[in-house]
Amino acid sequence: MSNLKVALYARVSTTDKGQDPEVQLRALRAEAGRRGWQVAREHVDHGVSGATPNRPALDALMESARAGNYDIVLVWAYDRFARSTKQLIDSLDTFRQLDVQFVSLQEQFDTTSPAGELMYTVIAGMAQFERRMIQARVRAGVARAKAAGKHCGRPRKDVDVSEARRLLDGGLSQRQVAKKLNLSRALLQRRLAEGRAGGSKGSSLGGQP
Question: Is the pTM of this model over 0.70?
Answer without folding.
Answer: no
